[in-house]
Protein backbone atom coordinates (compact mmCIF):
# COMPACT_ATOMS: atom_id res chain seq x y z
CA UNK A 1 0.00 0.00 0.00
CA UNK A 2 2.83 2.40 0.83
CA UNK A 3 4.44 1.97 -2.58
CA UNK A 4 1.10 2.85 -4.22
CA UNK A 5 0.89 6.02 -2.17
CA UNK A 6 4.46 6.93 -3.03
CA UNK A 7 3.79 6.33 -6.71
CA UNK A 8 0.63 8.45 -6.52
CA UNK A 9 2.47 11.33 -4.86
CA UNK A 10 5.19 11.21 -7.52
CA UNK A 11 3.39 10.21 -10.72
CA UNK A 12 0.17 12.22 -10.39
CA UNK A 13 1.86 15.64 -9.98
CA UNK A 14 4.18 14.88 -12.90
CA UNK A 15 1.23 13.94 -15.13
CA UNK A 16 -0.74 17.01 -14.02
CA UNK A 17 2.23 19.31 -14.67
CA UNK A 18 2.74 17.75 -18.09
CA UNK A 19 -0.96 18.33 -18.89
CA UNK A 20 -0.80 21.95 -17.72
CA UNK A 21 2.28 22.57 -19.87
CA UNK A 22 0.68 20.94 -22.91
CA UNK A 23 -2.51 22.99 -22.57
CA UNK A 24 -0.41 26.09 -21.89
CA UNK A 25 1.42 25.57 -25.18
CA UNK A 26 -1.91 25.08 -26.94
CA UNK A 27 -3.97 28.01 -25.57
CA UNK A 28 -1.40 30.19 -23.82
CA UNK A 29 -0.14 30.53 -20.28
CA UNK A 30 -2.56 33.14 -18.95
CA UNK A 31 -5.57 31.44 -20.50
CA UNK A 32 -4.50 28.14 -18.96
CA UNK A 33 -4.10 29.84 -15.59
CA UNK A 34 -7.57 31.39 -15.85
CA UNK A 35 -9.11 28.07 -16.89
CA UNK A 36 -7.51 26.36 -13.87
CA UNK A 37 -8.84 29.07 -11.54
CA UNK A 38 -12.29 28.87 -13.13
CA UNK A 39 -12.33 25.07 -12.79
CA UNK A 40 -11.48 25.40 -9.11
CA UNK A 41 -14.29 27.89 -8.53
CA UNK A 42 -16.85 25.90 -10.50
CA UNK A 43 -15.69 22.75 -8.73
CA UNK A 44 -16.18 24.24 -5.29
CA UNK A 45 -19.67 25.41 -6.27
CA UNK A 46 -20.61 21.99 -7.70
CA UNK A 47 -19.18 20.17 -4.69
CA UNK A 48 -21.18 22.37 -2.32
CA UNK A 49 -24.41 21.94 -4.30
CA UNK A 50 -24.06 18.17 -4.72
CA UNK A 51 -22.90 17.79 -1.11
CA UNK A 52 -26.06 19.50 0.11
CA UNK A 53 -28.21 17.20 -2.04
CA UNK A 54 -26.46 14.10 -0.73
CA UNK A 55 -26.68 15.34 2.87
CA UNK A 56 -30.41 16.05 2.53
CA UNK A 57 -31.01 12.62 1.01
CA UNK A 58 -29.06 10.90 3.81
CA UNK A 59 -31.07 12.77 6.43
CA UNK A 60 -34.33 11.87 4.68
CA UNK A 61 -33.37 8.19 4.58
CA UNK A 62 -32.35 8.13 8.24
CA UNK A 63 -35.60 9.83 9.30
CA UNK A 64 -37.48 7.18 7.32
CA UNK A 65 -35.59 4.47 9.24
CA UNK A 66 -33.50 3.41 6.26
CA UNK A 67 -29.76 2.88 6.15
CA UNK A 68 -28.22 5.45 3.77
CA UNK A 69 -25.60 3.08 2.32
CA UNK A 70 -25.60 4.25 -1.29
CA UNK A 71 -26.01 7.83 -0.19
CA UNK A 72 -22.91 7.50 1.97
CA UNK A 73 -20.97 6.26 -1.05
CA UNK A 74 -22.34 9.22 -3.02
CA UNK A 75 -21.07 11.47 -0.24
CA UNK A 76 -17.60 9.96 -0.53
CA UNK A 77 -17.70 10.52 -4.31
CA UNK A 78 -18.73 14.16 -3.83
CA UNK A 79 -16.01 14.75 -1.25
CA UNK A 80 -13.27 13.21 -3.38
CA UNK A 81 -14.60 14.93 -6.51
CA UNK A 82 -14.56 18.31 -4.79
CA UNK A 83 -11.01 17.78 -3.56
CA UNK A 84 -9.85 16.75 -7.03
CA UNK A 85 -11.43 19.85 -8.56
CA UNK A 86 -9.60 22.06 -6.09
CA UNK A 87 -6.26 20.54 -7.11
CA UNK A 88 -4.59 22.30 -10.04
CA UNK A 89 -4.56 20.10 -13.10
CA UNK A 90 -6.76 19.00 -15.94
CA UNK A 91 -6.72 15.25 -15.39
CA UNK A 92 -7.80 15.53 -11.76
CA UNK A 93 -10.51 17.99 -12.88
CA UNK A 94 -11.90 15.48 -15.37
CA UNK A 95 -12.08 12.75 -12.73
CA UNK A 96 -13.48 15.24 -10.19
CA UNK A 97 -16.28 16.33 -12.49
CA UNK A 98 -17.25 12.74 -13.22
CA UNK A 99 -17.36 12.05 -9.48
CA UNK A 100 -19.65 15.03 -8.91
CA UNK A 101 -21.90 14.50 -11.92
CA UNK A 102 -24.95 12.45 -10.83
CA UNK A 103 -25.13 10.46 -14.08
CA UNK A 104 -21.56 9.13 -13.85
CA UNK A 105 -21.42 8.71 -10.08
CA UNK A 106 -23.12 5.24 -10.13
CA UNK A 107 -20.11 3.80 -12.00
CA UNK A 108 -17.82 4.86 -9.16
CA UNK A 109 -20.34 3.62 -6.61
CA UNK A 110 -20.42 0.19 -8.29
CA UNK A 111 -16.62 0.06 -8.23
CA UNK A 112 -16.53 0.99 -4.53
CA UNK A 113 -19.20 -1.60 -3.68
CA UNK A 114 -17.23 -4.27 -5.56
CA UNK A 115 -14.05 -3.29 -3.74
CA UNK A 116 -15.78 -3.40 -0.34
CA UNK A 117 -17.42 -6.74 -1.14
CA UNK A 118 -14.10 -8.24 -2.26
CA UNK A 119 -12.39 -7.04 0.93
CA UNK A 120 -15.20 -8.38 3.13
CA UNK A 121 -15.16 -11.81 1.46
CA UNK A 122 -11.41 -12.11 1.94
CA UNK A 123 -11.63 -10.93 5.55
CA UNK A 124 -9.43 -7.87 4.97
CA UNK A 125 -12.11 -5.23 5.54
CA UNK A 126 -11.59 -3.40 8.81
CA UNK A 127 -13.22 -0.31 10.20
CA UNK A 128 -11.00 1.77 12.40
CA UNK A 129 -7.86 0.39 14.03
CA UNK A 130 -9.37 -2.73 15.49
Description:
There is one protein chain. With 130 residues, this protein is mostly helical. It is 83% helix and 0% strand. The protein has helices at residues 2-27, 29-63, 69-86, 90-100, 105-122. Helix 1 (2-27) packs across helix 2, helix 2 (29-63) runs parallel beside helix 4 and helix 3 crosses helix 5 (105-122). It is flat and about 55 Å long. The mean pLDDT is 89.
**Biggest sheet statistics:** none
List low-confidence stretches.
none
H/E topology pattern: HHHHH
Oligomer: single chain
Radius of gyration: 18 Å
Distance between the termini: 18 Å
Rounded average pLDDT: 89
Task: Give the tally of β-strands.
Answer: 0
Structural descriptors:
single chain, 130 residues, mainly alpha, 5 helices, flat
In short:
This protein is mainly alpha-helical and 130 residues long.
